Amino acid sequence: MNFLTLAILSLCFLLTSGEKARFENYRVYSIKIQNEQQLEVLQYLENSQNGLFYIESPISVFKSAEIIVAPHRFADITEFFERYQLENEIRVDNLQKLIDNEQPKFTPRATFGWEKYYDLENIYSWLDQLLEQYPNELTNYNFGTSYENRTIRAVKLSRKKGNPTIFIESTIHAREWITAATATYILNEFLSSSDPQIKELVENYDWVFVPVLNVDGYAYTHSTNRMWRKTRQPYSSSSCIGSDPNRNFDFHHGDVGSSTNPCSETYAGPKPFSEPETFAISEFIKTVDNLKLYMSFHSYSQLLLFPFGHTYDHAPNHKDMFQIGTKTIEAISKRYGTDYVTGNIAEAIYLASGSSIDWAYGVANVPISFTFEFRDKGQHGFILPADQIIPNSLEVLDGLKALVKEAKLLKYL
Predict the structure, then answer these.
(1) DSSP-assigned states of every residue in 364-386
(2) What is the pLDDT of residue 10?
(3) What is the pLDDT of residue 111?
(4) In this predicted model, what pLDDT tens digit does every residue of 67-114 receive, in sequence order?
């Protein structure tokens, strides 16, 4: 294949000011990587073409990569697949159609709810309302400022002094809208539910919620490019913008499963905590008292992951985290039959270094940490329809009940 022609793909994503990306008849291809030659050629493609839009970067053999392809490049990509004998499938045949159908055509609720996705301003406005409504239970923390000068916020829910603390970090990847929606749904349930199990969780544990960590990226997905993943900080060394904040933490930073290419979706950044968002949350975490459990909300794949990502070697309490994970995914499956898999990051999905849960576990000494990869398994991917917000939230809440119960049984809480 002529690599220069494929570079034209990147031009589809270089947007002028005020322009919103559209993906009419764009396809999403999933590519199976079966040998080192295929991995190398896919990585060369990413490293040599400024802004080539992988959704899932080529990381290792026997894993998959995903790429968005414009209609006028279908013949080129087909030739490329044939030349390197790359097994592939069309995961999505019209990306814009998914985006157009993500939100409901009509929203019956006039106030904040969970029948549609909301932008950052609406989420923050809702948090402000909660703080006024529950002044004795909720505490606000403006714990950082993003590159584009947006406030990064957390709220703490506490009803009793001396509780162990559970931390939920959400929307570190900008395009994963279901994570912010689920985090806010759970917070709302914790404040309003009459379910005895939920009331017990709120009475006996303090909960810290960061509904949107990657605030610049999240705002950009609403204003400009729905598929944006990274932060929005530019670098002098490249015309590409942003790093993957979930590769930017100071724990085996820049190790396997991350990229040194600023145009890559898994670019680790020029140094650990180069992004103001990741640095801010790391400093905030250090101030949280009695932190016993850290969770990061992601989509998609239906996985429950725990450390480590940088190595296949097992963490010291791998057996306990696997036991907790198993009980959690069993609980998730009971309501709707949603099938999750649990395991450490490296074995369950792929090698990945510099993640938030690995840093929380390996540096901040949080005894257990987990990443949820929510619905689905690729039918909609990152563009999960809004009518799945509540079902996803309910089954995740079922999982949290089981997770906390098993962690308590094993003396972590």
Answers:
(1) S--SEEEEEEES-SSSSTT---G
(2) 38
(3) 84
(4) 998 888 888 889 999 999 999 999 999 999 999 999 998 866 668 999
pLDDT exceeds cutoff 60 at 156: yes
Between CA 245 and CA 268 the distance in angstroms is 7
The Cα 178–Cα 393 span in angstroms is: 9
Residue 33, pLDDT above cutoff 70 = yes
* Inter-residue contact 339 to 274 (CB < 8 Å): no
At the topology level, CATH places domain 3-100 in Alpha-Beta Plaits (3.30.70)
Structure tokens at 258: 């991350």
Contact present, 181 and 388 (Cβ < 8 Å): no
Domain boundaries, the chain: 3-100, 120-224+252-409
Q: How much helix, strand and coil, in percent to the nearest 5, is found in the chain?
A: 40, 20, 45
Find all residues with CB under 8 Å of 377, minimum gap 6, and list them. Answer: 300, 301, 302
Among the listed residues 239, 247, 402, 235, the one whose alpha carbon sits nearest the alpha carbon of residue 331: 402
* Total residue length of the chain: 413
Q: What mean pLDDT, rounded, does the chain reach?
A: 92
Catalytic residue among 46, 169, 373, 406: 373
- Which residues pair with residue 38 across a beta bridge? none
- Residues whose CB falls within 8 Å of the CB of residue 161, separated by 6 or more in sequence, listed in order: none
| pLDDT at position 368 | 98
CATH number of 120-224+252-409: 3.40.630.10
Given a contact cutoff of 8 angstroms between Cβ atoms, the answer to whether 279 and 273 are in contact is yes
Q: Is 373 a catalytic residue?
A: yes
145 strand-pairing partners:
151
Whether 142 contacts 153, CB under 8 Å = yes
Per DSSP bridges, beta strands 303-306 and 341-344 are parallel
